[in-house]
Amino acid sequence: MPRDSAELRALLEPAVTALGFDLVGVEFVHGKSGLLRVYIDHENGITVEDCKQVSYQVSGLLDVEDPIRGKYTLEVSSPGLDRPLFRAADFERFAGQQINLRLVAPLDGRRKFSGVLKGLRDGQVVIQMDDEELLVSLDEIERARLVPDFGSHRVESA
């Protein structure tokens, strides 16, 4: 997927896992001043101190390796309740949950879709939307996030 840089993931993952955390994903948002988001997780959850520790380690690595040209801000955080999905394994792991996704290019005039994630089929992400299934390849997805479920009060976002 375009938003999860394989090169940045490959560079940062060993440092993050050495600290005992899982690297959920990496996003680089271009703009006047770029924003590098690094999502981390741990079976016991993530604290502010965890983010600070990873930020310090990753910042040093980025200073040495210098993979991003120009100015940018580094942000390290937990994936949150509306967890972003990056890798094929994420789409398998969270099968059965409600997701929102946005495509890189329109499909039948739409870029935004919501439904129940069914997992992967023949390398494509499968979303059940009412009476129809949507199948899209990972590289067609710009952004995918879980929809937090607070009992009967579902929170919709795009």
Write up this protein.
- The protein has 158 residues and is of the alpha+beta class.
- The chain folds into 2 domains: 6-77, RimP-like superfamily, N-terminal (GMP Synthetase, Chain A, domain 3, 2-Layer Sandwich), CATH 3.30.300; 88-148, SH3 type barrels, CATH 2.30.30.
- Helix content is 23%, strand content 42%.
- Strands 7-6-5-4-8 form a 5-stranded antiparallel β-sheet.
- The longest helix is centred in the middle third of the chain and has 18 residues, at 48-65.
- The model has no long low-confidence stretch (mean pLDDT 91).
Please name the fourth-level CATH homologous superfamily of the largest domain.
RimP-like superfamily, N-terminal
The main sheet comes to:
5 strands, antiparallel
Q: The CATH topology of the largest domain is what?
A: GMP Synthetase, Chain A, domain 3
Number of helices: 3
Report strand order across the widest sheet: 7-6-5-4-8
What series of H and E elements makes up the topology? HEEHEHEEEEEEE
Tell me the structural class.
alpha+beta
Shape by Cα distribution: globular
Low-confidence stretches: none
Oligomer: single chain
Helical residue percent band: 10-25%
How much strand content do the residues show? Answer: 35-45%
Radius of gyration: 16 Å
Structurally, the number of domains stands at 2
CATH architectural designation of the largest domain: 2-Layer Sandwich
Distance between the termini: 17 Å
Mean pLDDT across residues: 91
What's the CATH class label of the largest domain? Answer: Alpha Beta
Number of separate strands: 10
